[in-house]
Every structure is written in structure tokens, then in C-alpha cells.
Amino acid sequence: MSAKESAIVQFDNVGLRYGTEREVLSNISFTLFPGRFYFLTGASGAGKTSLLKLLYLAQRPSRGGMRMFGTDVITMPRDELPGFRRRMGVVFQDFRLVDHLSAFDNVALPLRVSGVRERDLAGPVNDMLDWVGLGHRADARPATLSGGEQQRVAIARAVIARPEILVADEPTGNVDPEMALKLIRLFEALNRLGTTVVVATHDYQLIRKVPESLIMRLDKGTLSDPTGALRYPPKRAPSGVEA
Amino acid sequence: MPWVIAIMVALCVLAAGGALALSNLAASARGELAGSATVQIIEADNDLRAEQARRIAGLLREDPAVTGLRMVPGSEVAALLEPWLGSGEAVDAVPLPALIDLELAAEVDDAALAELENRIAAYAPSARIDSQETWLAPVLDALRTLQIMALSLIGLLAFAGAAAVWLAARNALGGNRDTIEIVHLLGGSDAQIASVFQRSILFDAIAGGLLGLVLGAGAMTLLANRFAALDSGMVAGGSLSAIDWVILATVPLFAVVIAVYTARMTVLASLRKLL
Ligand SMILES: Nc1ncnc2c1ncn2[C@@H]1O[C@H](COP(=O)(O)OP(=O)(O)OP(=O)(O)O)[C@@H](O)[C@H]1O
Ligand SMILES: [Mg+2]
């Protein structure tokens, strides 16, 4: 199997500019392989969220090529994109919970979108809420939850449908170190089940907690891989690396 | 939203009811007068006139186009003209025309009538045939104009209704922009998102449509009763049949279809702007 075939995500010289301003991402080329655990680091404003937006198909690049799950997503007809989005789980930096839905209904959303029957929903959704420690807040609206609780609902929603790839933008930014570790363990468990994980963070403590992770680094819109993450076969990150 | 639809539907029901009543009125007026005509013979000499009338009647009786014939007695003609001429000695001196009422076969048209007129002219140069339908032509014309106006009104109302739904759907869309975007990003298809909006508009439209039907039909019934009270033969011809009421009952159905379709198109158009 060639590297190209086994890749789950492939960016080829991607550039992104918002409006007519300068490019916020330039010449981004990388390949993600299935079943790996990636961290995306970089200073605030380096373009992490922008890169992830391209990844979870919320934004079209201004130039370059993108393949996901072996398909060119740039030339793909628009009506095939929802099917691709369902194969991904996303934790948005700003959570993006639906205000007028309960925690339960927010977490159930991806399953409902995929057409899971109502009677098959309650079990997995409640289990997931228990796992993130919010079983007792299932009926709460997002507005009545703390920032960290909202983040955990967002994470529960992202992983409930066992996505092939999980994209998480600062998923531990609002929780205490203990909860952060617990959430990272959840991602690892998912990763062991075969999900490719991409986590944007500037928390190096967190990165160290996942010794087998691979690191990508954004610096003012250009990508580097100090640990050789983007080579094939990917090189393991030495534990304790400071990127 | 249901109120806007209710008002539109009520107005549509009234306009459609009016159009149907007018068309019934026109049809019944035409039906009563169609197939009849009157031969008029103007001749100062009483004896000659009677002779001409007799010979023309004989000819027409043989004609397959004529299914019934009645010589109008002189006394009746006098009674007809009395409002204009008055009665009394002097009037007896005025020569009255001879009139023959005809019933015509169904397929007789204006051209056939003109030909008939040519043939009887050989017996009496002054003889004229008046189809009674031609007297009614201006009335029918007026009715037709009213009908066209009612139909245009229905078209305008449908358009205004669609515009109202479009605005309402855009408004709802704006208020739910975040939700839509989230469901979109979680892999919800355009059709799924549109169906959520369609469903909520569907219920609104059904409620509004039924309410509008009740209002409109109520107003129609009220009007019908008022006109019936006039006790005029002409107006009675304009009452609505059972089929007409069924047609009116489909108005809210169209309203629901227009509303749901408009909402769907509005949502799909705005979703297409997202990647
Ligand atoms: N919608 C937008 N329109 C215009 N400029 C934008 C938009 N989103 C981001 N930017 C700009 O793009 C650059 C990268 O932003 P981005 O959000 O990707 O950074 P980030 O690495 O995620 O930062 P942080 O760590 O603070 O979340 C910034 O300069 C930002 O101002
Ligand atoms: Mg960011």
C-alpha cells in the first residue's frame, strides 16, 4: 500500500486567505495517517483554527489540493460533503452547542443526523454524558452550564458517533488539569479503537501525556514538523519534546 | 404567520367564490336566453303584414334549425309596447310589428341565423331576426371582466402569500442561523435542515389555511344570503353549487403547498451559501 492510498487526509500546497487580506495559511502540505494521534501546536493567531476549519470542511482553501478518505474534496459535489462530515467528530474552539437544546439533545444531534432511531439513542447518549461527568445535567441548557461543562458536552457530541477522525480545537482550554487528563484519556481510548485524532493545543503538559503522539507546528501560517510527524512512516515523537 | 396565511386564504376564498358565482350567473343567463330568437316584421299595411308573418312562419316551421315557433298575438305586442306608446284610441292607429318567437336547435350559431334571415327577407324585406343572446352580450362582457379581475386578484394574493412566507422563512432562518450552521457542520444535509423548517411551516400553514377557509366561507355564506334576500331571478342564478364549494375548499390546500414550497426554496437557497 502506498503512502498516498493509506492516507486519511492529504493537504497539498494549501493556502488560505480571508477576504483580500494576506494569506493566514501558506504552502501547507501534510499527510495524516489513520489511527495516529496528532497534536497541532502554535502561538495564538498562528492559524490552528483556520487549518482545522479546512480539515472539518467548514472552509474552502483559497488554493491547493485537499484529499480526505481518498477523495478529492475540492472538486467533490457539494451534496456529498455531509456524508464526509458525518465521518468526522469536531470539538469547536467556541463549543458551538445549540442553545435551545438540552445537553442530552446536543450530544444526540450527530446520531439523529445519521438517522439513528430514537429508542436506540438514550443508552449511548447517557453513557457518554456519564463518562464526561455530566450524567446529572442531561436536561440542562448550555446557558446554565459552566464553561468547562459546556466543553465536555461539546466533546461528548464530537465522539458519540465513533468518528473515523476526531478534530478538537483547544478541547481542554476550560477545564482543570485533572479533567483535561481525563478527556485526553478519552481521546486515547477512541484512538485505540482506530479513530485518527487531531488536537490543537498550546498546552505542552498535555502533549507530554500522550507519548506516542505526533506533533505538527504552525508558525505564522507555515507548517513545520519538528518531530518528523509528517514523514512516512511517521517518526515517534520523543517524549518530553518542547516544540 | 398563521394569521397572514388565514387572511390570504379568506380573501382568496372570497375572490374565488365571487368568480365562481359570476360564472354561474353568466352561464344561467346564457342558458335561459340561448336557443331563442325573435322574428320582427315591420310593415304598415296590416293585412300585408299578417300575410308576410303567416308565410314566414310556414317557411320557418319546415326549417330543421327551428324547433319551436309561436306567433305572438297582437294584444301581447301591444302590451309589450305599452310603456313606450301608452294605450288608448290613438295607439290603435300605430302599426305594430308582427313578432314570432323561435326556439332554435342547439347547434344554431350566429352565421346560421344570418342565413335564415336572408331567406325570410325574400318574403318580407323588413323582416329581422334578433338573437336574444346578442342583447345580453354587454352584460356577459361585464361579467367576464369581473371574473378576470377576480382571477387576477387570486393570482396577486397567491404571490403576496408566497412573499409573506418567504419573509417569514428568512426571518426564522436568521434567528436560527447558529443552529443551522451547527447541524450543517455535523453533517446534516440540506434536505434534512429544510425539512425541519418545512414541518414547522406546514403546521402554521394548515392552521392558517383552515382558519382562512372558515372566515372566507362564512363571509361567502353571509353574502349569498343577502343576495338571496333580493329575490331577483338574475341573482339567484349566481348561487354556488356543491362542486363550487369543493373548489373553494381546495384554496387552503394550495396555500399550504405554496407556503411549504416557498419555505423549502428559501432555506435551500440560504444553505447553498454555506460550503
Ligand atoms: N473569519 C476570519 N476573517 C478574517 N480573519 C480571520 C478569520 N479567522 C481568523 N482570522 C485571522 O487568521 C489568523 C489565524 O487565526 P486562527 O483563529 O486560525 O488562529 P489560532 O492559531 O487558532 O489562534 P488561537 O490559538 O488564538 O485560537 C489570525 O490572524 C486571525 O486574525
Ligand atoms: Mg484557534
Which tags fit this structure?
heterodimer, A: about 240 residues, alpha/beta, Rossmann fold, six-stranded mixed beta sheet, four-stranded antiparallel beta sheet, 10 strands, about 30% helix, about 20% strand, disordered C terminus, B: about 280 residues, alpha+beta, 2 domains, 11 helices, elongated, binds adenosine-5'-triphosphate, binds magnesium ion, ABC_transpr_LolD-like (chain A)
Please explain how this structure is put together.
The complex is a heterodimer of chains A (243) and B (275). Chain A has 243 residues and is of the alpha/beta class. Chain A has one domain (34-60, 78-224): P-loop containing nucleotide triphosphate hydrolases (Rossmann fold). Helices cover 30% and strands 22% of the residues of chain A. In chain A, the strands form 2 sheets. In chain A, strands 6-7-8-3-9-10 form a 6-stranded mixed sheet, with helices on both faces. The longest helix of chain A has 16 residues, at 177-192. Chain A is globular. Chain B is an alpha+beta fold. Chain B folds into 2 domains: 2-30 and 136-271, no CATH class; 43-126, no CATH class. Chain B has helices at 2-33, 46-62, 74-85, 89-93, 110-121, 132-175, 177-185, 190-230, 233-236, 242-249, 251-271, and strands spanning 36-41, 66-72, 98-104, 128-131. A 4-stranded antiparallel sheet of chain B has the order 2-3-1-4. In chain B, helix 1 runs antiparallel to helix 10 (242-249) and helix 8 runs antiparallel to helix 11 (251-271). The longest helix of chain B has 44 residues, at 132-175. The mean pLDDT of chain B is 81. The chains are: A alpha/beta (243), B alpha+beta (275). At the A-B interface, helix 3 and helix 4 of A face helix 7 of B. The structure holds adenosine-5'-triphosphate and magnesium ion. Magnesium ion binds next to helix 2 of chain A. Chain A: Part of the ABC transporter FtsEX involved in cellular division. Important for assembly or stability of the septal ring. Chain A: It comes from Qipengyuania aquimaris. Chain A: This is Cell division ATP-binding protein FtsE. Chain A: Belongs to the ABC transporter superfamily. Chain A: InterPro entries: AAA+_ATPase (IPR003593), ABC_transporter-like_ATP-bd (IPR003439), ABC_transporter-like_CS (IPR017871), ABC_transpr_LolD-like (IPR015854), Cell_div_FtsE (IPR005286), MacB-like_ATP-bd (IPR017911), P-loop_NTPase (IPR027417).
